[in-house]
UniProtKB/TrEMBL annotation:
NCBIfam families: asp_kinases (TIGR00657), PRK09436.1 (NF006959), PRK09466.1 (NF007003). It catalyses: L-homoserine + NAD(+) = L-aspartate 4-semialdehyde + NADH + H(+); L-homoserine + NADP(+) = L-aspartate 4-semialdehyde + NADPH + H(+); L-aspartate + ATP = 4-phospho-L-aspartate + ADP. It comes from Thermoflexibacter ruber. Pfam families: AA_kinase, ACT_9, Homoserine_dh, NAD_binding_3. The keyword ATP-binding applies. GO terms for molecular function: aspartate kinase activity; ATP binding; homoserine dehydrogenase activity; metal ion binding; NADP binding. It comes from the Bacteria. Residues 63-100 form a coiled coil. Bifunctional aspartate kinase and homoserine dehydrogenase that catalyzes the first and the third steps toward the synthesis of lysine, methionine and threonine from aspartate. Homotetramer. The keyword Metal-binding applies. This is Aspartate kinase. Pathway: Amino-acid biosynthesis; L-methionine biosynthesis via de novo pathway; L-homoserine from L-aspartate: step 1/3; Amino-acid biosynthesis; L-lysine biosynthesis via DAP pathway; (S)-tetrahydrodipicolinate from L-aspartate: step 1/4; Amino-acid biosynthesis; L-methionine biosynthesis via de novo pathway; L-homoserine from L-aspartate: step 3/3; Amino-acid biosynthesis; L-threonine biosynthesis; L-threonine from L-aspartate: step 3/5.
Length: 814
C-alpha cells in the first residue's frame, strides 16, 4: 500500500490535475492521495483575509478571483452531467468562506484560529474537485477532509499532532473506506473539532503521518523537480538528482536550502522506517530520489552541496574565556532567551574564541544581548566587545559516507583555495555528516560550482576561458580548441568553455559558453564596445571557478591588468611578451601574485613559440643545474629572412613574405630592430635568476638608421626597399666566405647581447630552415655539448599550439 502527495504546483491547473490523476490511476498500490491547495491559493487566501482585517474592501475582488478559479476548474474538469452538482457544492464552500471574510471585515480582527479556518479552504476546494474528477476518470475515489482524522492541539497555524489519536482515527477510517482517498493536506482539527493547520511543510507532513499510521510500503512525494538535487539547480546548472539518500542526509540537505522536503515532515516516516520517494509530476517516467535508512554503496562520500546565502558571524573572544567553565552556557543562554537560533558554531581548542552564525536580521539583537551578558568581563578587558560580520554565506557538503572516506575535507578546501575563496570559519559536526564553511556572500555561487565540480563532475573539468585578442594567434587558437574539444573531453575530461572574447573594438560575454562555430559573427555583431576595464570587471563579477584569461594581443594596456586578474584568482596564459619583459619588479610581482593566489601564470610562447624553451630552462634551474651560457636564434622572422634570402630575392620582399606567413610581430619593426629578440633573451636571463632590465641587453642593430626611425609600418617598408642593395651586399659578403647570416642572442657571465653574425658550416646554428629557432644551453651538467632546443619558433599554428598547451597544463593543475 502506498500513500502519495501532490504539491501546489502539481495541481496548479486543470491540465496538471488530469496528469496527476493519470499518475494515480497507473499506480495500483495507491491508497491515499494527499493534495495541496491549487498553486498560489494559500497565499491568496491569507492576503484576502489580511485585507479584510484592514478594512480594505477590495478584498472582495481577491475573493472573486479565488471563486472564479475554482468554479472554472470544476467546470473544466467535471463531465457535463455531474457538473452542476459539483459546482453547487463548490459554491456552498465559497459561501462559507465569503461569510467568514465578511465577519473579519466587520470586526477588523483576524485571529490565528480564524486564519487557519480560512486557509483550510484551499485544500478543501482542491481535494473535493480532484476527487470528483478522479471519479469521472474512472477511479473509485472519495474526498477525505482530514480534519476528521488528524487530531492536533490548539496551537493554531502550527499545531502539534496527537499521534496516538490520529493514528487510530486514520486506521479506522481507512479500514471502513475501501475507496481511494483524496485527502486534504496541511489541515487537522483539535479536540473540539476546530480547524487547525500543521505549519510549514504542511502537506508533506500529512502524507508522512498517513504513511506511518498505515505502515505504507512507500510514501511518494510528487513535486516539480526530479528529486533531491546535488545542489540548487538555479545556482549550479549541472546539478542532478541524487538517486538514494538517508533520512539524515535528506534532512541536512533540506536544512541548508534544498527545500525539496521540510525536514520535520520526515520524522513519522523515519520512525516507522518507511521509504520516501521524491518524484517529478512533470517527468513521471524518471525514478526520482529515494530517502530511506540505507547508506548508499556507490562509494560517493558527498551526496549534495548546499548553502545558506546570507548569514552574520559573531565572534566572542578574549583571554577571560580560556579554561573558564560556563562561558558558552551563558552565551547561548542569553541568545536562547530571545529565541535567537544559532545556525553554526565553531570553537578552537585554545578556547580563546567562540564563533557562531545567526540570521543577519537577528545579529544586532544578538550583539546587544552578548555585550550585556558579558558587560563585566568586557569592562575588565577579559572579553572583547563582540561585533557582527555581515554579508557572509555558509556552504556545506553533506554525506554519510564522509566519515568512512579520507581526503574529503582536503578536496573541499583545495577546490575553494584554488578558486581564491577565503574561508572565514569551518564547522564539522561530530556525526561527520556535514562540513560547513563560512565564506563571503559574493563567493557563494562560485563556491557551490567549484565544489560541485570537484565532487560530482570530477569526470569533466570545465575550464572557463576569457580571451582578449582574436587576431592571427587568437583566431588560430580558437580553431585549434574547436578541433580538439571532443578529444580533450573524451581522453582527459577537460571542457574548455569560452565565456568571453574580445578584440580591440568589441567584446562578447556568454556565461553559457560561446559556440566556436559562430564566434566571428557573434563577436562582430556584439553590441558591446571593448574596453579592458569593463572586460575585467565583468570577468571578476562572473566569479566563475577554474577561470583562465588568455591575452593574445601585443598590447601593454592589456598586460597592465594582469596584476588585478591574478588577484581575482584567475590564471593567465599569454604569448604577449610585454609583461615578462617590462620592469623586473613587475615580472617578479606577477610570479609572486600567481603563487600567492594559487593560480598559474604561463607564457611559454614568449620565447620560441611552442618550443619548450622556458619550461626547459626552469627545469634546469629548479633541478639545481647552473646555466653557464645561452646562445640562441630567437627570432622566427629573422631566421626565416636569412634562411630564404638569396641572390634571386630582394630583402624587403622577404620581410613582407615573413609578415604574410605570420612570423612577424604585429609591428614588424620590432623584429627587424631586434627589440623582439631583446625581450626574449631578457626573459631567459630572468628565468635564470638574474634581475636584469631591458636596458642591460646590448643590441648591435643591423638595419639602417632610416629604417629604424621610420614612423609607421608603411614608411618602414618604403625605407627598407631603399636599403635592399645594402642587405644584398651583406649577404653576398657572407656567402663569399661560405657563411650564412644569423641574428644570435647570447647570455654569458651576467651579460646579454644580440648581434648579426656570419657563421660557417662548423657552427651549430648553420643548419636552420624556415622560421627555426635554436637555443643552446651550456650548463654545469651540459658543459661541452650544450642542450639544444630547435624547431619552428614563429607562426600562427605553432604559437597557438603553445598557448593551447599552456591552457591544458593549467586545466590539469586546477
Ligand atoms: N606570430 C607569432 O609567431 C608569435 C606571436 N606571438 C605574440 O602573439 C601575440 C599576438 O600576435 P598576433 O596574433 O600576430 O597579433 P594580431 O595583430 O594578429 O592580433 C592582435 C589581436 O589583439 C587585439 N588587440 C590589440 N590591442 C588590444 C586591446 N588593447 N584590447 C583588446 N584587444 C586588443 C586585436 O584586435 C587583435 O584581435 C603578440 O603578442 C605576439 O608577440 C608570440 C609568439 C609567436
Ligand atoms: N615575431 C616573433 C614571433 C614570436 O615570438 C618572431 O619572429 O620570432
Ligand atoms: Na616556447
Amino acid at each position: 500500500m502506498k500513500v502519495l502527495k501532490f504539491g501546489g504546483s502539481s495541481v496548479q491547473t486543470p491540465e496538471r490535475i488530469r496528469n496527476v490523476v493519470k499518475i494515480v490511476k497507473a499506480d495500483k498500490q495507491a491508497r491515499v492521495v494527499v493534495c495541496s491547495a491549487f498553486g498560489g491559493i494559500t497565499d491568496q487566501l491569507i492576503n484576502t483575509a489580511k485585507m479584510a482585517e484592514k478594512g480594505d474592501e477590495t478584498y472582495k475582488n481577491l475573493f472573486k478571483e479565488i471563486e472564479k478559479r475554482h468554479i472554472e476548474a470544476a467546470k473544466e474538469l467535471i463531465e457535463i452531467k455531474r457538473q452542476s452538482s459539483v459546482v453547487a457544492q463548490v459554491k456552498n464552500l465559497l459561501n462559507e468562506l465569503e461569510e467568514l471574510l465578511e465577519g473579519i471585515f466587520l470586526l477588523r480582527e483576524l485571529s490565528k484560529r480564524t486564519l487557519d479556518n480560512i486557509v483550510s479552504f484551499g485544500e478543501r476546494f482542491s481535494c473535493y474537485i480532484i476527487s470528483e474528477y478522479a471519479k469521472d476518470a474512472g477511479l473509485q475515489a472519495e474526498y477525505l477532509d482530514t480534519r476528521k482524522v488528524i487530531r492536533t492541539n490548539s496551537n493554531f497555524t502550527n499545531a502539534a499532532v496527537d499521534f496516538e489519536i490520529t493514528d487510530k482515527l486514520i486506521q479506522e477510517y481507512i479500514a471502513q473506506h475501501p475507496a481511494l482517498q483524496i485527502a486534504t493536506g496541511f489541515i487537522g482539527s483539535n479536540a473540539e473539532g476546530v480547524t487547525t493547520t500543521l505549519g510549514r511543510g504542511g502537506s508533506d507532513y500529512t502524507v508522512s503521518i498517513f504513511g506511518a499510521a498505515l505502515q505504507a510500503s512507500e510514501i511518494e512525494i510528487w513535486t516539480d523537480v526530479d528529486g533531491v538535487m546535488t545542489a540548487d539547480p538555479r545556482k549550479v546548472a549541472q546539478a542532478f538528482p541524487v538517486p538514494t539518500l538517508t533520512y539524515e542526509e535528506a534532512m541536512e540537505l533540506s536544512h541548508f536550502g534544498a527545500k525539496v522536503i521540510y525536514p520535520p515532515t520526515m520524522v513519522p516516516a523515519l520512525k516507522k522506517n518507511i521509504p520516501i520517494l521524491i518524484r517529478n509530476t512533470f517527468n513521471p517516467d524518471f525514478k526520482g530520489s529515494i530517502i530511506y535508512n540505507q547508506s548508499s554503496s556507490d562509494g560517493k562520500a558527498v551526496k549534495g552541496i548546499t548553502s545558506i546565502s546570507n548569514i552574520a558571524l559573531l565572534r566572542v573572544q578574549g583571554s577571560g574565556m580560556v579554561g573558564v567553565a560556563g562561558v558558552s552556557a551563558r552565551l547561548f543562554g542569553a541568545l536562547a532567551k530571545e529565541s535567537i537560533s544559532v545556525i553554526l558554531i565553531t570553537q578552537a581548542s585554545s578556547e580563546h574564541s567562540i564563533c557562531f552564525a545567526v540570521k543577519p536580521e537577528e545579529a544586532p539583537l544578538a550583539v546587544k544581548l552578548i555585550n550585556e551578558e558579558f558587560a563585566t568581563e568586557i569592562q575588565r578587558s577579559e572579553i572583547d566587545k563582540v561585533v557582527a560580520e555581515y554579508d557572509l554565506s555558509i556552504v556545506a557538503i553533506v554525506g554519510e559516507n564522509m566519515k568512512k572516506t579520507s581526503g574529503v575535507a582536503g578536496k573541499m578546501f583545495q577546490s575553494l583555495g584554488k578558486n581564491g575563496i577565503n574561508i572565514t570559519a569551518i564547522a564539522q559536526g561530530s556525526s561527520e555528516l556535514n562540513i560547513s564553511v563560512v565564506i563571503k556572500k559574493e563567493d557563494e555561487v562560485k563556491a557551490l560550482r567549484a565544489l560541485h565540480q570537484a565532487f560530482f563532475l570530477s569526470d569533466i573539468k570545465v575550464i572557463n576561458v576569457f580571451i582578449v585578442g582574436v587576431g592571427l594567434i587568437g583566431s588560430t587558437l580558437l580553431k585549434q580548441i574547436q578541433e580538439q574539444k571532443k578529444y580533450l573531453l573524451k581522453e582527459y575530461s577537460i571542457d574548455f568553455k569560452i565565456i568571453a572574447l574580445a578584440n580591440s573594438k568589441k567584446k562578447l560575454f556568454d556565461a553559457n559558453g560561446i559556440d566556436l562555430t559562430v564566434w566571428k559573427e557573434r563577436l562582430f555583431n556584439s553590441p558591446e564596445n571593448m574596453d579592458m576595464e569593463s572586460f575585467v570587471r565583468e570577468m571578476e563579477q562572473l566569479n566563475l571557478p577554474n577561470s583562465v584569461f588568455i591575452d593574445n594581443t601585443a598590447s601593454s594596456l592589456v598586460s597592465s591588468f594582469y596584476e588585478r586578474i591574478l588577484k581575482a584568482s584567475i590564471s593567465i596564459v599569454t604569448p604577449n611578451k610585454i609583461a615578462s619583459s617590462g620592469g623586473y619588479h613587475q615580472y617578479q610581482n606577477l610570479k609572486d601574485l600567481a603563487k600567492k593566489h594559487d593560480v598559474v601564470y604561463l607564457y611559454e610562447t614568449n620565447v620560441g613559440a611552442a618550443l619548450p624553451v622556458i619550461s626547459t630552462l626552469q627545469d634546469l634551474v629548479n633541478s639545481g643545474d647552473k646555466i653557464l651560457k645561452i646562445e640562441a636564434v630567437l627570432s622566427g622572422t629573422l631566421s626565416y629572412i636569412f634562411n630564404t634570402f638569396d641572390s634571386t630575392k630582394k630583402f624587403s620582399e622577404v620581410v613582407k613574405d615573413a609578415k604574410l606567413k605570420g612570423y612577424t610581430e604585429p609591428d614588424p619593426r620590432e623584429d627587424l630592430s631586434c627589440s623582439d629578440v631583446a625581450r626574449k633573451i631578457l626573459i631567459l636571463t630572468r628565468e635564470c635568476g638574474y634581475p636584469m632590465e631591458s636596458s642591460d641587453v646590448v643590441i648591435h642593430g643591423f638595419i639602417p638608421e632610416s629604417c629604424q626611425k621610420a614612423p609607421s609600418v608603411e614608411e618602414f617598408f618604403v625605407e627598407l626597399e631603399k636599403s635592399d642593395a645594402y642587405f644584398e651586399q651583406m649577404r653576398a659578403n657572407a656567402e663569399k666566405e661560405g657563411k650564412v647570416l644569423r641574428c644570435i642572442a647570447k647570455f654569458e657571465n651576467g651579460r646579454a647581447d644580440i648581434a648579426l653574425q656570419a657563421v660557417g658550416r662548423e657552427h651549430p646554428f648553420y643548419q636552420l630552415s624556415g622560421s627555426d629557432n635554436i637555443i643552446a644551453f651550456t650548463t654545469a651538467r651540459y658543459p661541452e655539448r650544450p642542450l639544444l632546443v630547435k624547431g619552428a619558433g614563429a607562426g600562427a599554428e605553432v604559437t597557438a599550439a603553445g598557448v593551447f598547451a599552456d591552457m591544458i597544463r593549467i586545466a590539469n593543475y586546477l
